[in-house]
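REQUEST ID: PR-0412
SUBMITTED BY: lab tech R.K.
PRIORITY: routine
TASK: structure prediction, single protein chain
INPUT:
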Amino acid sequence: MKQKYKKINFKSFSYLIALLLCIFILSDTVKAEDDISSPFRKSFLEPKIVNLRPGDVLVIDFPGEDSFSKPFQIDSDGFLVLPESGRLQVLGKTIEEVSQLISLSLSSIYKDIDRISVILKERRLLINVLGYVKKPGPVNLTEKATVQIAINNAGGLEQGAQLDKIQVRRNNELGETEVLVFDYKKYLDTGDLSILPTLKPLDNIFVPASPLTGNVQVDFDALTLTASGDAGDSHDAIKVFGEVHRPGIFKYKEGASLIDMLMRAGGVTRYAGVEQIRVIVGGVPQPFNMREYMDTGNPELMPKVGKGDTVFVPQMSDQIKVGARTVYVIGEVKIPGAYETKEGATFFDILSNAGGPTRFAEVRQMRILRKDGSVDHFDFQAYTEQEENTPELPVINPGDAILVPEKTDLNEKSWLKISPNRAIMIVGAVKRPGRYEWANEMSLLDLIAHAGGPVSTADTSQIKIMPRPNENNQKPIYFDFGKFMNKGGNIEDIPVLGAGYTVEVPELPKDPNDNRSQWIRQESNRSIYIMGSVIAPGRYAFNENLNFLDILAQAQGPRTTADLEHIRISHRKENGSRVTKVNLALYFETGDDSLLPKVKAEDVIYLPDQNRAWQQKSKEQTVRVLGAVGTPGRYEFNNSMTILDLLAEAGGPRSDALEERIVVVNIVDGKPRAQLFDLVDFAKSGDYNRLPVLRVGDTIYVPDESQSERAQFRENLSDIISVVNLIRTLATGF
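STATUS: complete
OUTPUT:
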């Protein structure tokens, strides 16, 4: 009995010691709280506030739930995807706010939500790497990753990437796109990390293609790419071409000499005229005799090259040969050129050195152009025949020139045989355009027939006639030849022509989608423009016999996405500005031809797209639908629509929508007015009289459950519980 009593006393004594120890710890805790200068208090009670961003990795400690055992990463849109509860928007929130948001979203699914704790495990960067890389797309990087690491994660650079103009694009706080351009090549040369921009979440790295790659996708290697230089189309680059092994455009380097640039181009070829190298320095051409420079080593002979300069190395044969013993042979010889003569060289020696006359040479009309400006004629054929009065062989002196003219082709009619006062010209889309002899008894029909008639692509509705140059009236005359031939007419309506006139038969423009260079042949006063949502927009030939549907059919009709109810036609030739609105959909429903407008030459037809951006739609045509709906935005509205139509077009209310407190904001007498609409009550009653009246320009707002009084009460209660848990943690943590 004694032993049991002693045991009980020892146990009581242990409890007493434990109680005293707890009182001591609590007293130290209160003392630490009172000591405002305590470093532990500052670090614990004033933690660093971190706002979450895309890429951050969170750990959610939820004991007993295996689905929360793995880390969760915030996606590029700022959402956190959790089991059961789905996507939560956490962008810019703190850890404490996210913890409360997660607890609130899981409170209806799990019990013991107060056991959840959220920890920021790691900050990462979600980056897009685009352009000339091997694997363009998004990459997931560590917080301190650089541009080089991002490019390596995208598979590295492709051959042909332009390293000195890589871009980092990001959106600033104002929603504007900032573009940072940096020289990645300089970083690779120097290792200077300050050259690389510091990456931020959602940055886009764009690696452009070098202009050396051209506009056609082909397979090439680095050697092929750099064979044409290494600078692309840079304005500071130095262009080297001519008789060098690798002509191209080369990047300017400070201190580089002309010899350096020639060596970068592979050096000169064996055909180079090194005595006459030309260098354009600062827009001023300067000659460079490289042979003399190599012989003397005088640096003053070599021009200095700078940014944007041009170097040309000519061929030896391209040089102009001059000298005290030079003679020239030109015209119909096999090898015309300048030749170095020697003392005692005869006419035959020089002519033979030039390869002799060709078969087209007129040897009876040779001319010797003397150095003093005089001209001597020489009949080479008569000299070879050795008949009476055989001319003597001319003596050729240095500086003289031998001209061997070409024979006249007697089978080809010379236009000089017809004087201008008896000729007329016909050009354009006829089979034999040219210059023809004219007689006053002839007409335009005779001239067209003499020229072989119009070709199949001729535009005979607008034949243009220009009077002779010496007449006062120089305005062109137009004649509809096609209408005259198809429908007939008075012969007196045909314009009267005369010698010296010019007749042009224009050609119909080709399909602008096949050859856009042909449209300039067609004058604007014979054209009509159709653009927008048609299959083949462009500029089309037009005359008074065509109508609106003809032009629309010529453009291959509207696209499936065309807005046929809001077609616009701008009448440019009328005084002032007038735009006609056309509802083509209504025409197709009714067949009423009065709905179709009359179009004229130079009018512009525009078919808008149904899916055009909302900024292109005026506020007088739309109603805004905001809040907890499937697709918030601006929607077109007409008087036949109700709030139910707009909610349905916006995807309907979401599951968390507060349907009994929908707000409709409209303008009454210039002042905004808000009214409530209970969609739940309407669904029960089906009374359409309860639907609010809407007009264009109104706003519909559907709140969600987070704005209800019950949700606000839960949020306040959660805040109170969080404060109590914090106090309990502080009290038990020491």
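NOTES: The CA atoms of residues 101 and 432 lie 85 Å apart.
REVIEWED BY: pending
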